[in-house]
Write a structure and sequence with these properties.
Layout (H helix, E strand, L loop, with lengths): L27 H5 L15 E6 L18 H4 L4 E3 L6 E3 L3 H4 L5 E7 L6 H10 L12 H8 L9 E4 L16 E2 L23 H17 L13 H12 L2 H6 L7 H4 L6 H15 L3 E5 L9 H26 L6 E6 L3 E2 L14 E2 L3 E6 L7 E3 L16 H11 L7 E3 L5 E3 L13
Helix pairs in contact: 6-7, 10-11
């Protein structure tokens, strides 16, 4: 997958990398020491989640909130088309999503005030407006803490990386990043899960026995040491994953039937969506997938029409259809967002124009679990310059996303200093999403 830069120079890489994942097979233990899980909520409508990140900030007016009656300097060159959801229209360059609009809900008039990429990404990846004094955990880290996961699978996987960080929860809730995307007709493996460098299961077993001997020899030194707490347990979990056929097969998209895989196409984003559906089916609790390139200050319409919208259209439509085909959509919450929208009025930086950062109005998508698809919630004004009525905050969407997973967004955690912090600082569940 191409590495995208936004206009402020930020690379679309994760800001935190767990360097322990890599090298020899048992180095996965170093990741798993930081990936503990809590208990499953009995009220969950969904039991797993896929977060689709669109870093750079996609234009709401050219995707899911077109304004064909606005002045030409606002409406742009794209036309709306009907979807299979009554009264819902989206961009003509999203024809596949138009055919499955009954599977997702569109949130329009989502609004905030953070127009910088990094701050906007922090907001939409946590649901809480960033503070200089505290880093809030991303959705995947909270889900890792709250929902129980199989011992032989990583609970939180990012394809290829993510802006979601564990924040004050600590590095043990960080994601396992693949650092690569699948390619057509090629094996895909993740360092630390696949047995690389000629290593065999027998050698892994020998190392495990050696670790057991060392742990016994140094028993007692780790008392009252949080850094060492649980090392044995996570080494055992790493051993379980490495020697687990299920874990290795979870990342092998070549095992999907051609009929199932074909709609995802051969683009890295589509294949990443295919991998996400396979991981969820295998038992991974939370998966993030990224599609960058939305920072369209210049040549907005060409970039969207020729590149980004076809990729999003193919990958996301196949993901929703594929999850439903496997009976997983009703148990998998899907969240699609960028960090903000783009200016309704087209700039003149190039002949065809572009759109700049615009947090006052944007779209988000929700699907799966208890979400009722085929509907639009919220509304922007006639030029999409802001919400027409009451604004929807990213915090409201976060509260709703957690609600869909049976997680109470008002639950309090405690920082290392004992400070009580709610999962989402502000925000209320959008009840219309579920009715």
């Amino acid at each position: 997958m191409a590495l995208h830069r936004t206009c402020d120079g930020l690379k679309r890489r994760d800001f935190l990398k767990v360097g322990a994942v890599g090298g020899t097979a048992l180095s996965l233990a170093n990741y798993l020491r930081f990936a503990d899980a809590g208990q499953v909520s009995s009220t969950a409508m969904a039991t797993s989640a896929i977060f689709i990140n669109l870093p750079g900030g996609p234009s709401h007016m050219d995707t899911f909130d077109l304004k064909p009656d606005a002045p030409k300097e606002y409406r742009g060159t794209f036309n709306p088309i009907k979807t299979n959801a009554d009264g819902v229209q989206i961009s003509e360059h999203l024809p596949k999503l138009a055919k499955v609009a009954d599977k997702f809900a569109i949130l329009r008039g989502v609004s905030h005030t953070l127009g910088a990429h990094r701050l906007g990404q922090e907001f939409v990846n946590t649901g809480t407006k960033p503070l200089p004094s505290l880093e809030y955990p991303g959705y995947g880290s909270v889900v890792t803490k709250e929902l129980e996961s199989p011992s032989d699978l990583p609970p939180f996987v990012a394809i290829p990386n993510t802006n979601q960080r564990p924040g004050f929860l600590g590095v043990k809730y960080a994601p396992l990043m693949t650092n690569a995307t699948p390619r057509p007709n090629a094996p895909f493996s993740v360092r630390g899960i696949a047995l690389g460098n000629g290593m065999t299961i027998s050698e892994v077993e020998k190392r495990q026995n050696l670790l057991g001997d060392l742990d016994q020899a140094f028993k007692g030194f780790e008392q009252d040491n949080q850094l060492l707490d649980g090392l044995d347990r996570f080494s055992q979990q790493a051993h379980s994953i490495i020697t687990s056929k299920r874990a290795r097969e979870a990342f092998d998209i070549s095992q999907e039937s051609p009929n199932y895989a074909e709609p995802f196409g051969e683009d890295p984003f589509g294949l990443s969506c295919l991998l996400a559906s396979r991981l969820i089916e295998s038992g991974v609790r939370f998966v993030t997938v990224s599609l960058g390139g939305w920072d369209t200050h210049r040549d907005n319409f060409t970039k969207l029409k020729d590149t980004n919208l076809p990729k999003l259209d193919t990958g996301l439509s196949a993901l929703l259809t594929g999850l439903e085909e496997k009976g997983l959509l009703e148990t998998t919450a899907v969240f699609v967002t960028g960090e903000f929208g783009r200016t309704p009025k087209i700039n003149d930086r190039t002949a065809e124009g572009g759109r700049d950062h615009y947090p006052r109005c944007m779209f988000m998508l929700q699907a799966g679990g208890g979400v009722r698809g085929g509907q639009v919630i919220g509304e922007s004004d006639e030029k999409a310059t802001g919400p027409k009525h009451e604004a929807i905050s990213p915090s409201d969407v976060a509260a709703s996303f957690y609600h869909n997973l049976g997680i109470d967004h008002t639950k309090e955690y405690h920082t290392a200093t004992g400070r009580p912090i709610t999962i989402v600082r502000d925000g209320s569940v959008i009840q219309d999403l579920f009715s």
